[in-house]
Design brief:
single chain, alpha/beta, 7-stranded parallel β-sheet, 8 helices, about 15% strand, globular, binds NADP nicotinamide-adenine-dinucleotide phosphate, EC 1.1.1.100
């Protein structure tokens, strides 16, 4: 498959987990991938995995909650690869706590890293996309956007991603830019392992409980999110925009 031959993709938070799987998938299908994480050193393992398979990638360090850092990183990507066609807003964090004891600092941090960073990256990327009259933006929302105990901050941020997505689809559509989001359920990554640890469970036990309440009776894998992100970033989804697609094994 080579749906992304000649395309340049930026994937944020791509040192591990869903971001790394997405970077690998886009590269496997021919994209040159800018692997962005907090530091270029952290991103290098994903770059190595891509280049070992014959793909093209480069590591960039940027805190995506810092607009200046994002603009500098994206300018470097365009300098290195000549364009920016696909943006995957994947970087995210959790700071779970019941609402009555949630520190204001954790509210601010989670909103900033999960939602404001998507604003920063989309705003920096659209400059290039509008000019070339082509772009695909896919952002990571979450099933938690529908509400999740202990995640008032994260749920609000991920619901915000859906509103941002719907609005950017309206404003950027006239420039041939598709804007969509995916909303995964439980995916086995370092993020969910950290959640397990916080509630005093092993990763395996936590996954088993999540699997029991999922119609497909298992949790998801990062590659199963990456394939849907790739679909939305491809011409297979050329008339899909403003949507949030849930990837949650059938859970309601
Ligand atoms: P992960 O394993 O924790 O990976 C997230 C990556 O983002 C890490 O490499 C992290 O770096 C990086 N990052 C964090 N803050 C950043 C910043 N300010 N600038 C640049 N990079 C930053 O998480 P994941 O499970 O793969 O999740 C990826 C995305 O999917 C997130 O947006 C998450 O909210 C969403 N999601 C995940 C699930 C799930 O079940 N796993 C479900 C729904 C949605 P450090 O490790 O150095 O902090």
């Amino acid at each position: 498959m080579s749906r992304f031959t000649g395309r340049v993709a930026v994937v944020t938070g791509a040192a591990q987990g869903i971001g790394a799987a997405t970077a690998l998938r886009l590269a496997e299908e021919g994209a040159a991938v800018a692997v962005v994480d907090l530091t270029a050193e952290r991103a290098q393992a994903t770059v190595d995995a891509i280049t070992q398979k014959g793909g093209t990638a480069k590591a960039y360090g940027a805190d995506v909650s810092d607009l200046d850092a994002v603009e500098a990183a994206f300018a470097a990507v365009v300098e290195d690869f000549g364009a920016l066609h696909i943006l995957v807003n994947n970087a995210g964090i959790t700071r779970d706590n019941l609402f009555f004891k949630m520190p204001r600092a954790d509210w601010d941090l989670v909103l900033t890293v999960n939602l404001t960073s998507a604003f920063n990256c989309a705003q920096a990327a659209q400059k290039y996309m509008v000019r070339q009259k082509y772009g695909k933006i896919v952002s990571l929302s979450s099933r938690s956007a529908l509400g999740n105990r202990g995640q008032a901050n994260y749920a609000a941020a991920k619901a915000g991603i859906q509103g941002l997505t719907a609005t950017l689809a309206i404003e950027l559509g006239p420039y041939n830019i598709n804007v969509n989001a995916v909303a995964p359920g439980y995916i086995a990554t370092a993020m969910t392992a950290a959640t397990a640890e916080r509630v005093g469970a092993t990763a395996e036990e936590h996954q088993r409980l999540a699997a029991e309440r999922t119609p497909l009776r298992r949790v998801g894998r990062p590659e199963e999110v990456a394939s849907v992100v790739a679909f939305l970033a491809s011409e297979d989804a050329s008339y899909v925009s403003g949507q949030t697609l849930y990837i949650n094994g059938g859970a309601r």
